[in-house]
Amino acid sequence: MTNQPGRCMVDSQSHGGYSEIVSRRKFVELTGIAGAAALAGCSGGETDDNGNGAGNGNGNGMGSREDAPDFSEARLRTANSFFDPEDIQYNNHLWDGTTHINNSLFPELAKWNYITQEWTPHAAVDWDAGPETFTVELRDDLVWSDGEPITADDLEDRLRIGEEMGEELHDFIDDYEAVDDTTLEVRYSEGTNPFIVEQSLLHHHIDTPRQMWGEFVDMDDPDIGNIQSFTPRGLGGDDDVDDVIAGGTVVQDERGAQNISYRVRHSGVEIDGREIEPHPDADENINFAGYEMGYRSGNTEYHQSMMSGELDAMHSVFVPPETVDQFEHWHMIPTPMGFGPGLIFNHDDPHWGQREVRQAVAHVVDRQRAVDAVGDTTQAHIETPSGISTSLVDEWIDANELDTYTGGEDVAADLLQDAGYERNDDDVWELDGEPLEADILAPAGWTDWITAADSAVDDLTGFGIDVSLSPTPRPEVTGERLPAGDFEIVVEGWIPGGMNGFWPYFSLDHVFRNTDFAEPENRPWNNLPQEIDGIDTHERLDAFAATQDEDEMREIAQELAELYNEVLPAVPLTEGLEQSFLSTDGWGFSTDEGDVHNQWPLHWLPKQGNLWATE
């Protein structure tokens, strides 16, 4: 091992406050799309014709690639907290069973960096936005693991499946077509905001090889139910495929009871007697053998495994500051997440559907206390509920027009009394003899969210609102309870997370017409009505997506932020930093901010030659 520090260098990124970390470029830089060349450059070095970043972390990272072996049999050990290895599958259009390994199994068009606010090309080497057409140019050297070339037809197939699944891209575009082997054209109405198209398109992975997905893309009208029931695991059988065809840098190697192993597609690799077509970047950029994916039930098990040396990398795990201090041989990469827990209300509920009740909750819940409970080094305080990231407030809206909801119990009591509530003999608020109570669902194992929610529960119960926290497996919450409307309050993301969390359109769309967890599809999962206080929220969002005029965008953002602040579809608790971790025990990597601040470092850095085995 070379140059291995003894402790996790939490402060190595030298960041200032949260708003400084996530400050965006000026509007003209965001919407003046002139092609990939103008947006690249976040890989720490020049980019070759295939979109491969040349930066290797030398002089700015953990160890030196020059001192590393040409090849190591090491496997980068990681885990997920949702699915046992036997349940992991590779249909990215079905949340149940998918994990972050798909970021290595399938190539993304480009990678978004949350600090530089730029794209780095990968499967796409160039893109350009015109008045009515967005053109994507693909690399010509990518191949599936069975030797078939990856072409623009594969990307067209991917968009076709996404269209059937209702992906947001198709809310903004009219058509798409592979015009030759490497070029795909996306067409939209004149006036459509090209930045929204860019953000909705470039994060896609090419993950539907026709060899596996042909039955769906060949249908005139593929059935969503059939797509959602397709769970390829590479086990064979009536409802499976014999082999999972990969287009990324790794392919499934062996499935065990505790782990699934993945092999990097180096030259000469064979699995079960089958030769695997090499990935064009693997031999040059990746010097280790592959990955191992295991399971941990939640953050506590993650922490134990990280401290005991059972894991080498984590894509995302909450670790409080006092626990980080106990980690040896770990490097934390804090990345803005545009995500955080909030109290999401069922607006069909007789209590929580009342605006005055939600406003009372907002006045009682001490958001700074929630931040302090979780750890103020990883969370941002939400000064004013607006529906958009704290980092965007100063740039996009006038927060002086919004209520900060810091009135405390006196203001909350007035609101409840105005709504007809009174305290009963147990000092609990009630309406017509029905106590104001709720069982708050929270994702089990998400200790940061549960800690923030516990703080809110303490505030509310102390005020006389009878709530309790019910940790529940998140697949049950999102797959069953939310779609059925079977909840009163749930702890969920109050903004969408990822790069969409840093663009007001997507954050406000997430609030006002989110159908991710809803049935039927046209019902937002919080049962929020489309028209509120005479404002058709869907029409205003459509207008946001259909304009390139900055003043109009800001006007709509202000209008919808004020509406959010008045109606409170959710009471936000905190906004956090994503914590990714890489071990320095046997591994070296770049720490340059242009390399690491993305989703996710353990998968992206090896593709760029910026993470390597040291022994």
Task: Please tell me about this protein's structure.
This protein is α+β, with helices and mostly antiparallel strands and 615 residues long. The chain has two domains: 354 residues, Periplasmic binding protein-like II (D-Maltodextrin-Binding Protein, domain 2, 3-Layer(aba) Sandwich), CATH 3.40.190; 233 residues, Dipeptide-binding Protein, Domain 3 (Dipeptide-binding Protein, domain 3, Roll), CATH 3.10.105. Helix content is 29%, strand content 21%. It is built from 22 helices and 29 strands. Strands 22-21-23-16-26 form a five-stranded mixed sheet. The protein has a four-stranded mixed sheet with strand order 2-13-10-9, with no helix packed on it. α12 packs antiparallel against α15. The radius of gyration is 24 Å and the shape is globular. The chain starts with 17 loop residues before the first helix and ends with a strand.
Number of helices, counting only DSSP H or I runs of 4 residues or more: 22
CATH topology of the largest domain: D-Maltodextrin-Binding Protein, domain 2
Helix content: 25-40%
Shape: globular
Overall residue-averaged pLDDT value: 87
Order of strands across the widest beta sheet?
22-21-23-16-26
Rg measurement, Å: 24 Å
When the domains are counted, the total is: 2
Range of strand content: 15-25%
Q: Tell me the CATH architecture of the largest domain.
A: 3-Layer(aba) Sandwich
Count of β-strands = 29
Q: Runs with pLDDT <50, length 5+?
A: 1-59
Main structural class: alpha+beta
Regarding CATH, which class of the largest domain? Alpha Beta
Distance between the termini: 6 Å
Write out the CATH superfamily name of the largest domain: Periplasmic binding protein-like II
